[in-house]
């Protein structure tokens, strides 16, 4: 009972997240841009049952020859899906549970982060604004980008670790982002680095060690924990055809967002094209934007708020929001062209992930800000959530539901031909693709772990030992 009273906000976030995940559990499934999710979960579950860990290779993709998908495509969400298959769920239901869990974790972690700044009600509002952000709905029900919205879930966790200076929370959070979606990790890393350097500077000014400061350790340890994935992906990428994904239809120059689209753009289930009329929406959310503007105006111009420590969080979040928006617009083109590696991000509108993150924090700040004007915080929270759910629930709906079972996605044709055609960029550059389903192979190539992969496993093992040692030392210090 005491736990329920202390963490009632957590239960509210869980209950009100129902409408975001409800369509996932309707009988059947729905179309999405990346419709290989069930096949990937099925293949992951198969390899976990065979005792492979970490899973790098699956036997049926790659047109039946085998495919190193989890050596290059971030695997965390699929480990979760594969685990549910291991428990006895079929591949389709395991995929739905995996997707729903990624959505719910986003709200939980955002609630835990923002509660540190703006109290229980502020955490509830921010957590639900984060779940019901329009771009979140695009990722789930339009693009079907499981990897990206799983990384979205862990962004608040790593910031929570930095704020609390917790090596455990921060390093696990950063590793989870990398293992969920390496492109999101690329976007988030500079923001984390700025905060980590700021914390190190503060520690240096206070004559504390900035070399072993928790903030400076979080990023390094997060990299070590996830090295079993990103190190081979980076060093062995040259043996694949992944560079073919850069340019062409995925050239970042063709996918900048027009400013009015951030305020409002038509909801659709199509693709991104050159110009200001796309097949999918890139709006941040009117309520998210209005809340963010209100928060920064009050933080800057109302004396009793401006002098509070919370105002600093509001200002930093608003600057983060502006920077995120900047990278979605064509005015940032010179940065995209000058900074090495940004072309791998392909779509500038991916920065809507961070725009949703910072605007959700600012929405949670409104609860604290309203209390400074004698407005009851629960009244503000109720009104914000009422309008949020009223306007945004309708976005969390798939285009259609079709009858389907797990076998529709896991039979030989579905995996060796249909799913293999959808994702074949990790095959060798000179690989001759079959021209029809009748040319796929029934004899998968034998997988052998390379020296690079063995080294990467060792680095991650050392990272786990370092994390355990850090926890023991911290526990021993607190006990004394």
Question: How is this structure best described in words?
Answer:
With about 475 residues, the chain is mainly alpha-helical. The protein is about 65% helix and about 0% strand. α7 packs across α9. The two termini are about 30 Å apart. The mean pLDDT is about 90.
Structural class: mainly alpha
Beta-strand content estimate:
under 5%
Count of DSSP helices? 23
Quote the distance from N terminus to C terminus.
31 Å
Let me know the largest β-sheet: none
Can you count the beta strands?
A: 0
Order of helices and strands: HHHHHHHHHHHHHHHHHHHHHHH
Low-confidence blocks of residues:
none
Instruction: Work out the radius of gyration.
Output: 23 Å
From the spread of the alpha carbons, the general shape counts as globular
Summarize model confidence as the mean pLDDT. Answer: 92
Portion in helices: 55-70%
């Amino acid at each position: 009972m005491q736990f329920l009273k202390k963490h009632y906000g957590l239960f509210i976030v869980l209950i009100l997240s129902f409408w975001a995940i409800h369509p996932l559990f309707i009988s059947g499934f729905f179309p999405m841009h990346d419709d290989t999710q069930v096949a990937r979960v099925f293949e992951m579950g198969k390899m976990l049952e065979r005792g492979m860990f970490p899973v790098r290779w699956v036997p049926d993709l790659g047109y039946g020859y085998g495919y190193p998908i989890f050596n290059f495509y971030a695997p965390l969400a699929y480990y979760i899906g594969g685990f549910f298959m291991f428990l006895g769920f079929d591949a389709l239901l395991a995929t739905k549970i995996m997707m729903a869990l990624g959505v719910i974790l986003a709200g939980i972690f955002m609630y835990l982060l923002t509660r540190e700044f703006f109290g229980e009600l502020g955490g509830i509002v921010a957590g639900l604004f984060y779940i019901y952000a329009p771009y979140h709905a695009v990722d789930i029900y339009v693009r079907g980008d499981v990897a990206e919205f799983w990384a979205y879930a862990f962004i608040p966790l790593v910031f929570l670790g930095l704020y609390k200076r917790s090596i455990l929370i921060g390093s696990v959070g950063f590793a989870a982002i990398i293992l969920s979606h390496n492109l999101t990790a690329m976007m988030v890393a500079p923001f984390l680095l700025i905060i980590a350097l700021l914390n190190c500077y503060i520690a240096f000014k206070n004559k504390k060690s900035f070399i072993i400061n928790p903030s400076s350790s979080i990023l390094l340890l997060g990299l070590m924990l996830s090295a079993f994935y990103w190190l081979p992906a980076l060093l062995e990428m040259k043996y694949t055809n992944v560079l073919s994904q850069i340019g062409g239809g995925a050239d970042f120059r063709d996918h900048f967002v027009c400013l009015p689209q951030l305020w409002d753009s038509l909801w659709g289930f199509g693709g991104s094209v050159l110009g200001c009329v796309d097949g999918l929406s890139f709006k941040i959310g009117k309520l998210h934007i209005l809340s963010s503007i209100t928060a920064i105006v009050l933080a800057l111009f109302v004396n009793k708020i401006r002098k509070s420590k919370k105002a600093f969080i509001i200002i930093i979040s608003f600057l983060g929001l502006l920077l995120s928006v900047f990278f979605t617009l064509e005015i940032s083109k010179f940065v995209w062209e000058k900074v090495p590696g940004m072309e791998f991000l392909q779509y500038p509108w991916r920065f809507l992930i961070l725009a949703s993150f910072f605007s959700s924090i600012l929405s949670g700040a409104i609860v604290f800000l309203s209390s400074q004007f004698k407005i009851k915080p629960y009244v503000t929270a109720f009104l914000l959530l009422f309008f949020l759910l009223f306007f945004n629930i309708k976005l969390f709906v798939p285009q259609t539901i079709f009858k389907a079972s797990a076998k529709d996605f896991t039979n030989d044709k579905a995996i060796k031909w249909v799913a293999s055609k959808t994702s074949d960029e990790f095959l060798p550059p000179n690989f001759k693709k079959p021209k029809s389903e009748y040319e796929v192979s029934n004899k998968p190539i034998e997988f052998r772990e390379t020296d690079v992969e063995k080294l990467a496993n060792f680095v991650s093992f050392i990272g786990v030992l370092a994390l355990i040692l850090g926890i023991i030392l911290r526990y021993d210090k607190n006990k004394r």
